[in-house]
Amino acid sequence: MTAGERPHLASPTAAGEEFLAGLQADYPLAKLTSFKVGGPADYFASAKSEAEMARLVRGAWELGLPVFVMGNGSNILLSDKGIRGLVIRNMCANVSYAETGDRLEIAAESGAMLPRVGHEAIKRRFYDLVYATGIPGTVGGAVMSNAGAYGWCMADSLSWVKFLARDGAIQTLPAEQCELRYRHSRFKDTGEVVLAAGFTLSQRQETAKAAELNRKRRDSQPLTLPNAGSMFKNPPGAAAGALIEQAGLKGRRIGSAQISDKHANFIVNLGGARAADVRALIELAQATVKEPLELEVQLAGDWT
Ligand SMILES: Cc1cc2nc3c(=O)[nH]c(=O)nc-3n(C[C@H](O)[C@H](O)[C@H](O)COP(=O)(O)OP(=O)(O)OC[C@H]3O[C@@H](n4cnc5c(N)ncnc54)[C@H](O)[C@@H]3O)c2cc1C
Which residues catalyse the reaction (predicted)? Predict the structure, then answer.
């Protein structure tokens, strides 16, 4: 297959043809990402329920079509060539909250926005997810990378994850079996699709206020320009942003992409940037900084 070419599908059955006919072709994706860059999806669909998500994923897998689940698009750098296969926009956003004595049990579909879940918990005077009110992603995207901030992360309150396994079966695992560590979960390696997650909250003391943490973000991060959050994981004992700044790269520009002059672990789109410009800045930082810089943002799509 040459770059940008659609995957070859073994002649689809009538049911397969019908499945493909229900999808949108050549769907522009840049507007669905926080970076506002990247090319189209070969095929695109939105899922508003778990059943619809499962039907779409299984249908694509049966046809040999790669699947990419798009949450809020806030942790991806999408290639200018776009994504081969089916992109499913996750709009499954039901959440239930049950107070049981001194605990709050939350069951959230994976397309629910994390800040909303965090604020709903605060309304009920549970403060475990205060840190998460400034992370602009879905529950599924956050579980995928064990998202975190200010010393807390998903693993602190996640109790279970329901997902679609590669054989198409729906499974549930306790959080302890999800291999959650710094910006990592098993789902990064397996290609399984997160359908829902459970959280058990118990923190009744408001040790940090959401408004204060989020003001801190606005003061230190370039939130007025399109970006995808921190580009690199912090190497042990160091801050990636400080290392990039010390290497003299703060403010460096390639095309319309720039290593932010406000926070050097952010790359911003100054307007009309290409994914290739962002990638070139990533490679420049990795080549210039002595310590290895591992990507936190996910490269998505066709980078051949
Ligand atoms: C301004 C800003 C600030 C940020 N601050 C933080 C922060 O403090 N801490 C932090 O950890 N992150 C931060 N991020 C990054 C990002 O918001 C988080 O990683 C978030 O959890 C990503 O969720 P998403 O729904 O946007 O995922 P997406 O970007 O849509 O997807 C990310 C990856 O997860 C996969 N994925 C998404 N949903 C599913 C699913 N249901 N099943 C299987 N795979 C799935 C996608 O295929 C993709 O590979 C920030 C981003 C921005 C733009």
Answer: 183, 230
How many Å apart are CA 37 and CA 33, to the nearest integer?
7
How many other CB atoms are there within 10 angstroms of residue 22's CB atom? 11
Q: Which secondary structure element, helix H or strand E, spans residue 119, and what is its range?
A: helix 114-123
pLDDT at 4 over 60: no
Chain-centroid distance, C-alpha 227:
13
Q: Is residue 138 over pLDDT 50?
A: yes
Sign of CA dihedral 78, 304, 81, 273: positive
**Of residues 89, 145, 157, 183, which has the active-site annotation?**
183
231: Cβ–Cβ under 8 A, 6 or more apart, which residues?
240, 265, 266, 267, 282, 285, 295, 296, 297
What is the domain class of 14-90 according to CATH? alpha beta
Atom 27 of ligand 1 has which residue's CA nearest to it? 141
Which part of the chain has CATH 3.30.465.10?
A: 95-201
Asked whether the predicted pLDDT for residue 2 surpasses 50, the reply is no
Structure confidence at residue 109 as a pLDDT band (50, 70, 90): very high
Distance 58 CA to ligand 1 centre (A): 23
* CATH class as words, domain 95-201: alpha beta
Which residues are CB-neighbours of 138 under 8 A, at least 6 positions away?
71, 72, 90, 110, 111, 112, 113, 114
The ipTM estimated for the assembled molecules is 0.99
**157 close to ligand 1 (CB < 6 Angstrom):** no
User: What fold does the segment set 221-293 form as a domain?
Assistant: 3.90.78
Q: Rounded mean pLDDT of 7-14?
A: 75
What residue's CA is closest to ligand 1, atom 12?
A: 147
Given a cut of 80, is residue 9 above it in pLDDT? no
Residues of the chain with CATH 3.30.43.10: 14-90
